[in-house]
Write a structure and sequence with these properties.
- This protein has about 400 residues and is α+β, with helices and mostly antiparallel strands.
- It has 3 domains: about 170 residues; about 60 residues; about 130 residues, Heat Shock Protein 90.
- The strands form 2 sheets. A 5-stranded mixed beta sheet has the order 2-4-5-7-6, with helices on one face. Strands 1-3 form a two-stranded antiparallel ribbon.
- A hairpin with a 3-residue loop joins strand 6 and strand 7.
- It is elongated and about 110 Å long.
- Pfam families: HisKA_3 (PF07730).
- This is histidine kinase.
- It is an enzyme of class 2 (transferase).
- It comes from Amycolatopsis speibonae.
């Protein structure tokens, strides 16, 4: 499967932005120190505005989800600064290069990340604010008009760069989606042509053995093998159908979750199952139901392999956070005192983590209490949010 994780921020670009913005502010400060006489209040105000906008421009990388708020705040602050400069006596020496660059960076980020309508509104407001700022602050002169043209060109470059980055991400996402589709169809063909073919052969041979040994003591065992093979073949066919038509897997169904949990637990009398009231009527996506089955089944198998002396195994399934998440907890008391237990080897937990991560869920596994070991999965329900975007919640019950 192709990786879909968000790439880490490019630290070189962050350092470059910081150096450029800091350099412009230092240049303005040095120029003010060289000049004789006290600094006008308006010039100090413009300098503080440039520092603030520079901080907002850098924060957009730390908080990409708040790009709209940061850009709106930057435009509002710059516009307020221009209004103050227009109402009072203009500053003699034009300044504000750091402010203009920071505002251009924020506008470019808005064009890159925000929805089209929101990005268009902020781009237009940012352009008007940048083009009008020199004239409103420093008066209607040839120099200020030249600065306004330069700032307008800077705004245009920022919009172009933002749109180029936006188009590049759209093309990348389309290429990833196409690659996933090709991989999914290839897997469907392999499952249909190879796995389903071999399982069909096993079922047919088992049926033949049942006919030959119709009166033998192995008849019950043969029937069980035939039934298991038929179920496996049906599961493979359903999986092939879902791979070829993924829209079928996104339909929300009601029911089936309780039956799935009970099937995963089986007839094991050593497992205590605690299901929340109304769980059978909970709307759950099919892939969530299958993931819950995998978590419970794999956790029970890990108990058998790694904690055979466990006296108590509990399975708790309940919706939490106003039914935004489904919480699946499987715990046991098979950890010996003074013994440090590591996560089971192999691919059990890795497979669970991959399935849960694909659903925007969260998986934690580790020691719990004095002798306990717990596997805790939190899966988003229809209408909920991804666990990655949600705040951390306490893991203790």
């Amino acid at each position: 499967m192709l990786p879909t994780a968000t790439p880490p921020p490019v630290r070189g670009l962050v350092i470059a932005e910081f150096m450029v913005l800091a350099g412009l502010n230092v240049e303005q400060l040095v120029r003010r120190l060289i000049m004789q006489g006290p600094a006008p209040a308006g010039e100090i105000f413009y300098f503080a505005t440039g520092l603030t906008l520079g901080a907002l421009a850098l924060l957009r990388r730390r908080f990409p989800a708040r790009t709209a708020a940061l850009t709106t705040s930057g435009i509002a602050l710059s516009l307020a600064c221009s209004v103050v400069g227009f109402l009072f006596e203009p500053v003699a020496a034009p300044s504000g290069d750091a402010e203009a660059l920071a505002l251009a960076v924020l506008v470019g980020a808005a064009c890159h990340r925000l929805p089209r309508g929101h990005a268009a509104v902020l781009a237009v407001l940012g352009g008007l604010t940048m083009a009008a700022a020199p004239v409103l602050r420093f008066g209607d002169t040839f120099t200020t008009l030249s600065i306004a043209v330069v700032w307008a060109l800077l705004w245009g470059c920022s919009v172009i760069v933002g749109l180029i980055l936006r188009d590049g991400e759209a093309r990348r996402d389309a290429a990833l989606a196409a690659a996933r589709d090709r991989e999914r169809l290839a897997l469907a063909r392999e499952l249909h042509d190879l796995v389903a073919h071999h399982i069909t052969g096993v079922v047919v041979r088992t049926q033949a053995a049942g006919v030959i040994l119709a009166d033998g003591p192995e008849q019950d065992l043969i029937k069980e093998i035939e039934h298991a093979g038929a179920e496996a073949l049906g599961a493979v066919r359903r999986l092939v159908m879902m791979l070829r038509s993924p829209e079928l897997a996104s339909q929300v169904t009601v029911g089936g979750l309780v039956e799935t949990i009970e099937a995963a637990v089986g007839d094991d009398e050593g497992v205590t199952v605690r299901l929340a009231d109304g769980l059978a009527d909970l709307a759950v996506a099919p892939e969530t139901v299958s993931t819950v089955h995998r978590v419970v089944l794999e956790s029970r198998n890990n108990v058998r392999r790694h904690a055979p002396d466990a006296r108590r195994v509990t399975v708790v399934v309940e919706p939490v956070d106003s039914r935004r998440y489904l919480r699946v907890e499987v715990g046991n008391d098979g950890l010996r005192p003074g013994r440090v237990r590591r996560a089971p080897g192999g691919y059990g937990l890795i497979g669970m983590a991959e399935r849960i991560s694909a659903l925007d869920g969260r998986l934690t596994a580790g020691e719990h209490g004095e002798r306990g070991w717990r596997v805790l999965a939190e899966l988003p329900l229809p209408g909920g949010v991804s666990a990655a975007d949600a705040p951390e919640r306490g893991s203790a019950r």
